């Protein structure tokens, strides 16, 4: 009886916390659907704000820029982190230990400490106000944690599987691609989701590196639109909804593969 009562209390507490967390999201959705005063509409809810942001401001351009940079960052990060994590997981030499220590040092540094030196360097090679330059920064910023996540997941795959393949004549590369990668789908997707969220939600790096409105990503676009239209809450909230949708869709689709244990293991390894 006491155990059941404790479960109900925990369930009620989780329900209350979830409700508190969702209040701002619900407010954004409601405000985005309420027509503004300037629209002259008497309807309680409508899609006028979404029509406005997609027809009168470059929302699609900002959305395309964000998706392009984020997906490119995810692809490059996963492609590099998988073999690097394999080396970190299986390697036992001093050079690998030094490499591991270097990753730990890079991971512990705040991104802001590298932004200004990178801005000066990128300005000399023409990568400021350039989405390619922004993607390079995102890849570098997420790479250390991505490698640790992959290494933590590959640790859970028995080495004996690769050893059996080597006995049958498989090379080291074949063992990695056919044994390790085939069994690393949750780890790969967890790393992809983590990198996606880091790149998609970034504001600090984008505000430093981007100057032209046609190259803005969505976080910068939302901030710029808010500064110019602070009283048009409906349109601002509609933009916020557009920005929230891709991460929600990605996480809702791939959440069953998201490995919290992989993240915990990677952080514990530091």
UniProtKB/TrEMBL annotation:
<feature type="transmembrane region" description="Helical">
    <location>
        <begin position="12"/>
        <end position="33"/>
    </location>
</feature>
<keyword id="KW-0472">Membrane</keyword>
<dbReference type="InterPro" id="IPR000515">
    <property type="entry name" value="MetI-like"/>
</dbReference>
<dbReference type="InterPro" id="IPR050901">
    <property type="entry name" value="BP-dep_ABC_trans_perm"/>
</dbReference>
<keyword id="KW-0813">Transport</keyword>
<protein>
    <submittedName>
        <fullName>Multiple sugar transport system permease protein</fullName>
    </submittedName>
</protein>
<dbReference type="GO" id="GO:0005886">
    <property type="term" value="C:plasma membrane"/>
</dbReference>
<feature type="transmembrane region" description="Helical">
    <location>
        <begin position="187"/>
        <end position="210"/>
    </location>
</feature>
<dbReference type="InterPro" id="IPR035906">
    <property type="entry name" value="MetI-like_sf"/>
</dbReference>
<feature type="transmembrane region" description="Helical">
    <location>
        <begin position="101"/>
        <end position="125"/>
    </location>
</feature>
<feature type="domain" description="ABC transmembrane type-1">
    <location>
        <begin position="63"/>
        <end position="254"/>
    </location>
</feature>
<feature type="transmembrane region" description="Helical">
    <location>
        <begin position="231"/>
        <end position="254"/>
    </location>
</feature>
<feature type="transmembrane region" description="Helical">
    <location>
        <begin position="131"/>
        <end position="152"/>
    </location>
</feature>
<dbReference type="Pfam" id="PF00528">
    <property type="entry name" value="BPD_transp_1"/>
</dbReference>
<keyword id="KW-0812">Transmembrane</keyword>
<keyword id="KW-0762">Sugar transport</keyword>
<keyword id="KW-1133">Transmembrane helix</keyword>
<keyword id="KW-1003">Cell membrane</keyword>
<dbReference type="GO" id="GO:0055085">
    <property type="term" value="P:transmembrane transport"/>
</dbReference>
<feature type="transmembrane region" description="Helical">
    <location>
        <begin position="67"/>
        <end position="89"/>
    </location>
</feature>
<comment type="similarity">
    <text>Belongs to the binding-protein-dependent transport system permease family.</text>
</comment>
